[in-house]
Write a structure and sequence with these properties.
This protein is of the alpha/beta class. It has one domain. It has five helices and six strands; from the N terminus they run E-H-E-E-E-H-E-H-H-H-E. The strands form two sheets. Strands 4-1-5-6 form a four-stranded mixed β-sheet, sandwiched between helices. A two-stranded antiparallel sheet has the order 2-3. The chain starts with 5 loop residues before the first strand and ends with a strand. The mean pLDDT is about 95.
């Protein structure tokens, strides 16, 4: 199976997409040279954030043309994480035909609640100040999820649960998924 150089990875704040990213990145098929101590957030028992995030007001502006700047070499798939890709999916896909888009969907209310529980505006990386307040954050979650679903529908995407079997079928990789992600769906657009 031929894997891409990049995956434009998107999900809303609180969708647990960061935990999914970290599970994928346990494979040597992915490069993690974007990880530095400054690009990490831990919150009690939650997986937190690791590696570069692209977004408005964040360390890296969400420009698909410049995603490679976050990695310091290394071989493997670059998992380019951004909530803001949800606004640019119709530009990303035709502009990066050899790369994949990975969508993570989790309903608005539970995503919003989880984001606040995991730290909300106290999250130290990445920077969420751009959203300004909880009302704006919830509106952004709704809009991003709506864009993700529209893009998936447009591309006749198949939604699945994030499981060991799905990873094997999609990537050809043996990665164990020990967590139950029963309210989260994932899809790949190749």
């Amino acid at each position: 199976m031929r894997l891409p150089n990049r995956i434009f990875f998107t999900g809303v704040p609180g969708s647990k997409w960061s935990g999914i990213a970290q599970i994928l990145e346990t494979s040597d098929a992915f490069t993690t040279t974007d990880r530095t101590p400054e690009r990490e957030y831990q919150h009690n028992v939650y997986s937190g954030h690791k590696g570069a995030y692209f977004g408005m007001g964040m360390e890296f502006y969400p420009d698909p043309m410049n995603v490679d700047q976050a990695w310091d070499g290394g071989n493997g798939i670059k998992l380019a994480k951004s909530h803001d890709w949800a606004y640019m999916l119709d530009v990303i896909k035709p502009g990066f035909m050899d790369d994949w888009v990975m969508l993570v969907y989790r309903p608005n209310e539970v995503s919003n609640a989880w984001w606040h529980e995991a730290g909300g505006f106290e999250i130290t990386y990445p920077n969420y100040e751009h959203y300004k307040n909880s009302e704006n954050m919830y509106s952004a979650i709704q809009e991003q999820n709506n864009n993700i679903l529209k893009f998936a529908h447009k591309h006749d995407a198949t939604w699945n649960y994030f499981t060991t079997k799905w990873i094997k079928n999609t990537f050809g990789l043996d990665i164990e998924v020990n967590n139950m992600y029963d309210d989260i769906l994932v899809s790949i657009i190749k």
